[in-house]
Structures are given as C-alpha cells and as structure tokens.
Amino acid sequence: MDEIQRARRITWITLVGGLVLSWALLVLGSVVLLGQERLPWWRAAPALVAAVGFTWLAWRAIAAVMDGRYARREVAASAVLAVLGAFAGGGDPFGWGFLIMAWLYVATLRVTKRTAVLQSAGAWAVAVGTGVLGVATGIGATDLSPAEAALFYGGVHAVWAVTLPPSGRLWVWIWELAVRAHEGREAHTRLALAEERLRVARDLHDLVGHQLSAIAVKTELAGRLSDADPAAARAELAEINTLTRRALRELRATVRGYRELDLTAELDSVKGVLEAAGVRCVTRLPYRELPGGLAPVFAYAVREAVTNVLKHSTATFCDITIRFTAEQAELAVRNDGVARRQAPAEEADGLGSGLTGMAERLAAVGGTVEARPVEEGEFLLKAVVSLPIPG
C-alpha cells in the first residue's frame, strides 16, 4: 500500500469513528432506558430503524467526502432520520440524542466555515429541543424538569457542537493536503523526466547537428557544381560521405551511451532532477580525482540509476556514494523507494535494458554491477571496478 492509500485509509477510519461512537452511546442510552422501563418496543423499533438508516446514509456521505464531493441528498435524508431516532429514543445527549450531533459531524465535513457554523447552531437548537420534549413527555432518561433539562442539555450539546465539526473537518483538511502533495510530487517527477529528455535532445543536437548542417550545405553545393565543375562536385560528395560516416558514428555512440560524460556535471544534474521531483539527494564524494577513465563510466551509471529511481520507485531520499582505494573503486546509489519497484520477473522489460547496458559498460573496464533490495523499503545499486583500469 503506497503513502496516499495509507493516508486515505487512516482518514476514512477516523471519520467512521464518529459513527462508531454514536452507536456506543445508543447502546448505552438503550440500556439506561430499558433499566428505567422507558423504552417500549413501539418506540425502540422505529428508533433502531432510523439509526440504521442514518448510519447507512452517513457512511455514503463520508465516502462522497473522500472522493471530493458533498452528498447533499444523503445529508438531508440523514438529518430527518437523526431527528426521528433521537426523539424516539428520548433525546438524551449521552444516548439517542447524540444522533443529531453525529449528523452534524458528517454534515460539516466539506462545507464553508459559515455554513458549518449555521449547521452547528441549528443542530444544537434541534438537539436541545428534542431532549427537552422527551423530558416533557416523560420518555427521556432523566427526572429533571424541562427547564433544568434545557440548561443541562444545552451545555452538553454545546460542547458536542463546538468540538465535533472542527475535529472532522481537520482530518478532511489533512487528507486534502496529502492528495495535493502527492499530485504535486507526481507533477514534479513528470517535469524532471521531461527536462531530462530535453537535455538528451540538446546533447544529440550539439553532437550531430553541426555535421548534418554541413552535409546539407555541401549537398546543395555539389548539386550546383555537378555540371559546371564535375571534379569539384566529386570532391564535395567525398567530403559529404566522410561527414555522414562521422555523424553516424557519433550518433551510434550517443545512443549506446559511449559518449564521454562529465561526472561532476552529471552529479549536479541528477541532484537537481531528484530534488525537483521531491527526492532528497545526498552525495558523498572522494576528495581526490578519480583514476583516469573511471569518471565517464560512473557518470553513466549514476544517470541510469537515478533514471530508475524516478521511473520505478516512490523514493523520498537518494544517497549517492563514490569511494576508491588503490585496488578498487565503488559507486553506491541507495534509495528508499523499493515498495513500488517492479517484480523481478518484470524487470527484464522495465529496468532490464538499462541495467544490462550498465553491466556491459562496466564489464568493458573490468567492473561489475549489482542491484537489489537490501533493507525494508530500500534499494541499492552498487558498481565496483578493479583498479587500475585495463588499457
């Protein structure tokens, strides 16, 4: 389960907790009324039906809130059932009267502050009136006078009306922040990948653009000279052939990843891309320059590893460490986003091609690469090269 699903579940459980509390108080109120012989079956039955219907509608209203909607019909219908159930059960604030406050808890989840205040005031007045009416008709669970009941019920329901709506609205607000943060992170990741594609496109343009432009110019010149000076035209064609072969070699070198990369520039680039995607990046580098021929290999490995972090994980941090001795050099890229990585059977289609290319490049300098989960939620890519590099 990823972070956003976990946040959704926690918010859902918390909001439904208000309905669980209402049923706990309903059971308590029923026990008190039955002990006082004030809850005959002809009132208990409709009260129970109303409570069940209210719970079902409130459940649907909470589901709508989690989906970003406000279920007006469910809220309106549950209000009627809450009042009917509260009155049939006697209206005690610690018993059946709590149904009205449970409705207020659900009804204020996705409304403006002004609407929430008006709903709270209305629910308080209805709840107090229902409780006092229950006392006046002798069906309540207390022997207080109507005036005493109005004072007592007014205070208790005021506490409910002041505390319940903000608590529910707080959890909805936290959930919305989590959703926005998740969407923002995905947008940053897409932007980072787009920037990386643009960078590759610029590299290709800089690498072969000059040769292609020269080929176009010389082709036009050879066409003009073909009749006037055939020898000069043949010379231009020969040069076009040379430029074409050179451009093809450089293009193949770029596609296969054999172009020389600057390790320092690559580290700066991937760190910027990761941080733009919301991934904290820490680099640990040796204070000495790497042995000759090793920097381009590690630069390619860093680029490939970070690309996999962005495409195949939900990492929040990425640690890049490079160290070397007289006998060997090591690159380690560790991240905590292994939870959503592809299964091993799928990696051949996803990460496989990139890791294969990296392994081939490292093998060319006598090195090896290893990529595997190492701890709970962490993934490690480690490249090791024996020194000195052959050749």
UniProtKB/TrEMBL annotation:
Q: Which InterPro entries match?
A: HATPase_C_sf, Sensor_HK_TwoCompSys, Sig_transdc_His_kin_sub3_dim/P
Task: Please list every transmembrane segment annotated in the UniProt record, as residue ranges.
Answer: 12-35, 41-59, 94-111, 123-141
- Provide the Signal transduction histidine kinase subgroup 3 dimerisation and phosphoacceptor domain boundaries: 196-262
The protein's GO terms of the molecular function aspect are: kinase activity
Name the UniProt key words of this record, in alphabetical order.
Answer: Kinase, Membrane, Transferase, Transmembrane, Transmembrane helix, Two-component regulatory system
Q: Name one Pfam family in it.
A: HisKA_3
**Which CDD domains does this entry report, sorted A to Z?**
HATPase_UhpB-NarQ-NarX-like (cd16917)
Protein name per its UniProtKB record: Histidine kinase
